[in-house]
Amino acid sequence: FKSKLPYIHSHIFSYMTGLANQYNAINLSQGFPNFEPAQQLKDLVAQCLNQNTSQYAPMAGLPALRNQVAIKIQKCMNVGVDADTEVTIGCGATEMIFNTIAAFVWPGDEVIIIEPGYDCYRPAIDVVGGKPIVYKMQAPDFKIDWVKFATYITPKTRMIITSTPNNPTGVLMTNNDMLQLAQLVKGTDIIILSDEVYEHMVFDGAAHHSPLQYPELRERTVAVFSFGKTLHITGWRIGYAIASPDLTIELRKVHQNTVFSASHPLQKAIALYLAETDEYLNLPAFYQQKRDIFLNAMSGTRFKPLHCQGSYFQLFDYSDISNEGDLAFCERLIKDYGVAAIPVSRMYSDNHDDKLLRFCFAKTDDLLIAAGSKLTAL
Ligand code: GLN
Question: Aminotransferase class I/classII large domain location, by residue (predicted)?
Fold first, then answer.
């Protein structure tokens, strides 16, 4: 048979984590916390397992959790969302991203993706026969030039995939970015897929802007969010999508026929937890402090930091240290210096290499400090 994804040989995040484990290195590569979620949340799961949750949850998600999501969106974004017709709970944001692409992209349709970016968009577009059109942001500030971006839109453009805060650059889309996007898609039938999994990790007083907050974008947007990122539970695989009722109907058709529904006890526990606490509102301060501890730990090295406005990733330029390609350099960092990072070239479909590495700072302070001191030897 002919592979639909011939360019996929391995998963860069799993590869780097595997190598970090093999060499017992400090793993700042794959984006996940090395600390536990709230004990209260884990206790709720244990309780929920004894509360009749062992059979299928409703296809679109537990009503109690969809209600909590609607409350959260109102509180954080000042956007009214109907829990019945506009919220769908899935098995992680990644599932909802795939479903959105599968539901709306027809063979031959063009989908604009922005790079560097998370690596699951392009494969999903290719699997359904769409055509990925890559808009490249330029280092070091990774801003979108909307005049140039406009030239990527054709009558075949079916979807634009945006992400803010962006993985791996940590760059935020601003109010002006949203207005420019709204202007561009006005009068078209283009759908926006908005990846907002790092919505609560915005620093230095900046605000998170979602297309859901802009009336001209709201009706054409599927916005995808992650409890994995927000509650430190990336392994539980629970995320959600918000979209208008018309879009949600189609999205749920794909969800229904892939996984049908997400884990029942986990959904119930998260719903009960969110009813009791909004501790996630502390995430900006929590992660800003980690960013700063890590930057401070790295200040004695020859790595040059780029500005991180959000997400839990910090980019560093290593061109003062080596001419090696970033993948080879990362492999050497693990083997010789005991620290794992992600080569940013792997987050471009053409492996564009600016000699940048991505480090995840969702780690305990001791690890961030130890990584910095190991890298001073370089
Ligand atoms: N989002 C995480 C990252 O960018 C990893 C996700 C995954 O490994 N599936 O590192």
Answer: 25-366
The two tokens of residue 292 are: 């700063």
Domain ranges for the chain: 12-37+281-375, 53-278
ipTM of this complex: 0.93
Q: In terms of CATH architecture, what is 53-278? A: 3-Layer(aba) Sandwich (3.40)
Question: Would the pTM count as exceeding 0.90?
Answer: yes
Ligand 1 atom 7, closest CA: 13
Q: From ligand 1's centre to the CA of 141, what distance in Å?
A: 22
Ligand 1 mutation pick, 166, 234, 342, 361, max ligand atoms within 8 A of CB: 234
Ligand 1 pocket at CB < 6 A: 13, 30-31, 118, 167
pLDDT tens digits for 130-183? 999 999 999 999 999 999 999 999 999 999 999 999 999 999 999 999 999 999
CATH number of the domain located at residue range(s) 12-37+281-375 in this protein:
3.90.1150.10
Q: 101 vs 93, 110, 224, 254, CA distance in Å? A: 12, 11, 12, 10
| 198 CA → ligand 1 middle, Å | 12
Nearest to 85 by CA among 119, 116, 60: 60
Residues near 66 by Cβ (< 8 Å), separated by ≥ 6?
A: 60, 83, 84, 87, 89, 240
- Expressed in angstroms and rounded, the spacing between residue 29 Cα and the centre of ligand 1 is 9
